[in-house]
Amino acid sequence: MKDYLVLRVxxxxxxxxxVMFALYVQFHGDFGPGGGFQAGVITAAAIVFYAIIFxxxxxxxxxxxxxxxxxxxxxxxxxxxxxVAGLLLGGNYLDYFVLSADPVDGQHRGIFWIxxxxxxxxxxxxxxxxxxxxxxxxxxxx
Amino acid sequence: xxxxITVVIARAxxxxxxxxxFGIYSFLMATVLVALDAVDVAxxxxxxxxxxxxxxxxSALHLGKxxxxxxxxxxxxxxxxxxxxxxxxxxxxxxxPAFSDPRAPIHQHVAKRYIEEGARETGVPNMVTAxxxxxxxYDTLGEVTVVFTxxxxxxxxxxxxxxxxxxxxx
Lengths: 142, 170
What we know:
The complex is a heterodimer of chains A (142) and B (170).
Chain A: H1 5-27, H2 36-54, H3 56-62, H4 65-88, H5 103-141
Chain B: H1 2-11, H2 15-35, H3 39-63, H4 76-93, H5 105-108, H6 111-122, H7 127-135, H8 137-159
Helix pairs in contact in B: 1-2, 2-3, 6-7, 7-8
């Protein structure tokens, strides 16, 4: 769909806002609806949109396969790592109170990091699945 | 409206139409969830159910044929089983406490503490986030692991084809 001028221009405009909205959903999850799962899916959707308009190779150039695969694992590791950090600082596993001198502040920190882990993992998995499916299609038509 | 769409989905043979109808169904479901004051779930339903699943269904559809096969047998036994199960579930709802009854057992256990102490203990105004990320951190870790496992599964299943050169055989 690279040849459609309108689609291309609109896509360029939209993708910035989509990623922005994903970040808003991510970091505003404390106050409004949203969180890592939703933000991860919206991020993945923005990149899938890019891939649909500009073609899979272009999307792969922006977000390479390797990075996506690392993201899949890094998110879970980050989440689990927050738990281990709590352990090392003398709390229970996934205890956020110990992450900062002020327990409420520690909660904020813990939630921030685990939500980030969720975002990274979810976005990675969604993108990876899409890449895999789209890639097989390209293989079949060759 | 949801019922109508469900019937159409079951009747339709063109899978492309089915995928589009699934998207509509998800958005309607999200509307229902907003009406039930579950904004977080509604948002998930709209983005995951209507957004990403539609894309994944479409890309899967691209690999296969667009028309559903004719059923091999008459679906009366499965139909009877689903109707019986549905009836049993509907009968079960009669025993549930009234909708949003504050004295229902589910509100007596830990939910009370989440609502009364949650904002003070975690400093997070959105109760859903507080429960999901803080009180139920283990469960959410499990969920992320499920997503991770799904991704790894897809990679393991689909990756195998890539290194094979054409003409090498299986």
